[in-house]
Amino acid sequence: MLREEAVRSEWDGKAYLPGEIARCRLSGVMLSVDQIGPDGAGLELRRVLDGIGGKPNPPAELLAYLRARDPNVLGDLRELRHTVSPHGQVIVFCGEHRTLFGFRSKWIGGYFRLGPAAEVLGTLASGARKVGRWIEES
Q1: Which of 20, 97, 101, 135 gives the lowest tally of CB atoms within 10 Å of its CB?
Q2: DSSP-based helix, strand, coil % in the chain, nearest 5
Q3: For position 131, what pLDDT does the model report?
Q4: DSSP character for 13?
Q5: What is the pLDDT of residue 104?
Q6: Which residues of the chain register pLDDT less than 70?
Q7: What are the counts of helices (DSSP H) followed by strands (DSSP E) for the chain?
Q8: Pairing mode, if any, of strands 119-130 and 7-8?
Q9: Residue 28 near residue 42 (C-beta atoms within 8 A)
Q10: Which residues pair with 126 in a beta bridge?
């Protein structure tokens, strides 16, 4: 593989040929094709959005970043779950944002880079959970 053609996966940090990598449909983050599910979403992102993956108590730097970026929505996420990438530099996260006095909720998730260049990678996915499955907002 030529170094110029290699594209790095944000999730595992490895370099892949252009045909072995694609964008997550929900976030736009570059992932290897084996990290993307049949619906085009990143597998780990989909797992936390569906509520079947991740651990509680995300890193403090994620919480601080979300509060600073948007204190009213992202800073107010509840039931935060996260999964750390194999190389430990990126996490996928999801949390619930309640509106209308708690009667309506949406689940927001995405990829986050840890460390000195901490930032949300790509865009955040937002939707509802129905019958144990996350459904994208239209």
Answers
A1: 101
A2: 20, 40, 40
A3: 85
A4: -
A5: 83
A6: 1-4, 102, 138
A7: 2, 9
A8: unpaired
A9: no
A10: 108
- What does the alpha-carbon distance between residue 108 and residue 125 come to, in Å, rounded to a whole number? 6
* DSSP H or E segment with residue 60: helix 60-69
Distance, in Å, from the CA atom of 22 to the CA atom of 7, rounded to the nearest integer, reads 10
Backbone angles phi and psi of 117, in degrees to 5 = -100, 40
Rounded-to-integer distance, Cα 45 and Cα 37, Å: 10
Please count the CA atoms within 13 angstroms of the CA of 6 that sit on its side-chain side: 10
pLDDT per residue as tens digits for the range 21-56: 999 999 999 999 999 999 999 999 999 999 999 999
49: DSSP letter: H
Beta-bridged to residue 130, according to DSSP, are 133
Place of tokens 């290699």: 6
Residue 3, pLDDT score: 64
Task: Quote the tokens at residue 133.
Answer: 């499955």
Residue with tokens 């430990």: 88
In DSSP terms, which residues pair with 84 in a beta bridge? 91
Tokens standing for residue 120: 């949300």
Q: State both tokens at 95.
A: 């949390």
CA 41 from centroid of its chain's CA atoms: 10
